[in-house]
Structure formats: structure tokens, C-alpha cells
């Protein structure tokens, strides 16, 4: 399978805990994007990388959120001190470059109790 | 700012055509996309249209773009039960590559 993969698919955590999600993009895709989708809404942009450089961060990405793409391949999204409002589907997408089609992974569903 | 709007629900009979509508605000968008999402799954790219085109056809899918009115539509011919899903339109913000999504249209196909 050469699509975008995400791990884990589901995560249940208690409020205040830290969580980390991983995204593996399509091989040789330079751009990697993170989006968040809450129930009944469309995905909202969080941040994106060109290789290992983080080029843009949405104002939705509070200080408790951090994303990395250390070697320009896989990326991690960490949420510290989770809150119930963080419960959502976190989607990752990748593309070959600017203005190119974004292909999405299956998402990680986070539930904060 | 950028905004994308869609109607929330559409119900059609199997075999009929479905038309899902979308309006957007950013006239500088270069590409507009349609994605499909089934329950609990990620987004599947269906088709896209470049902003200088009026129409694009891909098998059962036809995309119409009216730039003057900033209106985009997706027509699904011969709708099947497997087409039941949520359909999102999205515009690509120029010079940023991020996508702005609508709230999605839930398509229900009944026999």
C-alpha cells in the first residue's frame, strides 16, 4: 500500500495527558499537511511542511500543539495537556509539491475523557 | 476571509442523478476539489477542476464551475447506494496550498 498512513487509528486519553500521532506520507511527497475535523464539520487546516521545514501554522494550533517532520519523511503531531475540546479526527495529507493534489490518510480519531 | 458553503443533506433514489452544490469566496483560488468521506474514514479525492475551466467530466462525475458566481457543482450520474457518503468541496488558497473545506453534504441514496 503506497497511500498515506496514520497511527494510531484511534486514541482514547484522559484530560491532561499528552498524546502523539504519526503520519507517513506517500513516498517522495515533499509536502505534508495536518488538518483537524470535528463532528459535523469539514477539515480545518492546522499546519504544513515542505520537506522538514514547517511553513505555516494556523491560529488553531495553540501552544499545546507541536508538529515535527525531522527527516522530511514521516511527521508527528503532539498535543500536550489534552482538553476535551481536542477531541476530533486528525487528518494527514501529502502532495508532491505546491499546487498539487493532496491525498489524505485514514485519520486518527482522538477522544479526550 | 475564505469561506466555503454547502447544503447539508441530499437524498436521491438509486439510478437518479445527484447534484451537490458549493459556493466559495476566494476568487483567486486556482484549484477546486471534491472529496468523498465514508463513515469513520479519511477523505478520498474524487475529482478537481482548474479555475480556468468551466466543466470537467470523469466517468459518472461532472464538475461545473461558474467563476462569476463562485459556484461549483458535482453531478453524479446513475447514483448507486455505494455513493452514500459525505461530499466536501474545497478551495485551494492561492500561494498557501492549504485547502479550505465546506461543511460537507451528506448524500443518502435509497433503493
Quantity of strands of chain A, as a count: 11
Taking Cα atoms only, what radius of gyration of chain B do you get, to the nearest Å? 13 Å
- What is the residue-mean pLDDT of chain B, rounded to a whole number? 91
Largest protein interface?
A: A-B, 26 and 24 residues
Number of helices of chain A: 0
Overall mean pLDDT of chain A: 93
Distance between the termini of chain A: 33 Å
* Largest beta-sheet characterization of chain B: 6 strands, mixed
State the shape of chain A: globular
Q: How would you describe the overall organization of this protein?
A:
The complex is a heterodimer of chains A (113) and B (111). With 113 residues, chain A is mainly β. Helix content of chain A is 0%, strand content 50%. Chain A contains no helices and eleven strands. In chain A, the strands form two sheets. In chain A, strands 2, 4, 5, 6, 9, 10 and 11 form a seven-stranded mixed β-sheet that branches. In chain A, strand 4 (31-37) and strand 5 (44-50) form a beta hairpin. Chain B is mainly β and 111 residues long. Classes of the chains: A mainly beta (113), B mainly beta (111). The interface between A and B is medium-sized, with 26 and 24 residues.
Can you give me a brief rundown of this structure?
The complex is a heterodimer of chains A (113) and B (111). Chain A has 113 residues and is mainly β.
Strand and helix layout:
The complex is a heterodimer of chains A (113) and B (111).
Chain A: E1 5-7, E2 10-13, E3 19-24, E4 31-37, E5 44-50, E6 53-57, E7 65-68, E8 75-79, E9 88-95, E10 103-104, E11 108-112
Parallel strand pairs in A: 2-11
Antiparallel strand pairs in A: 1-3, 3-8, 4-5, 4-9, 5-6, 7-8, 9-10, 9-11
Chain B: E1 4-6, E2 9-13, E3 18-24, E4 31-37, E5 43-50, E6 55-58, E7 61-66, E8 71-76, E9 85-92, E10 99-101, E11 105-110
Name the features.
heterodimer, A: 113 residues, mainly beta, seven-stranded mixed sheet, 11 strands, globular, B: 111 residues, six-stranded mixed sheet, five-stranded antiparallel sheet, 0% helix
